[in-house]
Design a protein that fits this description.
This protein has 150 residues and is of the alpha+beta class. It has two helices and ten strands. Helices cover 25% and strands 32% of the residues. The strands form three sheets. The protein has a five-stranded mixed β-sheet with strand order 3-10-8-5-6, with no helix packed on it. The chain has a three-stranded antiparallel β-sheet with strand order 2-4-7, with no helix packed on it. A two-stranded parallel sheet has the order 1-9. A hairpin with an 8-residue loop joins strand 5 and strand 6. The longest helix has 29 residues. It is elongated, with a radius of gyration of 31 Å. The relative contact order is 0.19. Pfam families: DUF7382. Keywords: Membrane, Transmembrane, Transmembrane helix.
């Protein structure tokens, strides 16, 4: 048994082959990871596109007004069949106003914002509910409509 331990102690082949095997494993692993990431980034169906609302006008006064809201994706293309929801932020609004975008991505919403006593300005919040079955989402904040006292 002592002879076997002495023989293993003097054997230097394992030390010589180990770094080469590690380098080969590292190169193969990096190449495989590169191929897999390239395949995953090429799949467009898994991507979610963020929506944004562009109201016109962006500044209004209290009283009954019509807002034209265009819904666009991250590339600036309009999105049809999305639901636009306008609610009171720091400006008062009775309930919420909703409308669905047409083929041009535009929705017209009638609102009647009001400001509190001694309040010079306020905002209306706009949310977008994406069309069903699409790859759209509305997670970030949208442009707010500024309501200013006359």
């Amino acid at each position: 048994m002592l002879d076997r331990l002495t023989e293993l102690y003097r054997d230097e082949r394992a030390i010589e082959g180990l770094p080469v095997r590690l380098v080969i494993a590292l190169v193969v692993g990096v190449a495989s990871l590169s191929v897999m990431l390239n395949m995953v980034s090429g799949i467009e169906g898994l991507a979610i596109t963020e929506l944004d609302a562009r109201p016109e006008p962006e500044v209004t006064t209290p009283g009954e007004r019509e807002l034209a809201v265009t819904v666009v994706d991250a590339d600036g293309r309009t999105v049809s069949d999305a639901t636009v929801v306008v609610s009171g932020g720091t400006a008062d609004l009775d309930g919420v106003a909703t409308a669905r975008t047409d083929a041009d991505g535009r929705a017209t919403v009638t609102v009647s914002p009001s400001l509190g006593p001694n309040q010079a300005e306020g905002t209306l919040e706009i949310d977008v509910k994406p069309p069903a079955g699409g790859s759209h989402a509305d997670h970030r904040g949208n442009t707010k409509v500024l309501v200013v006292a006359e």
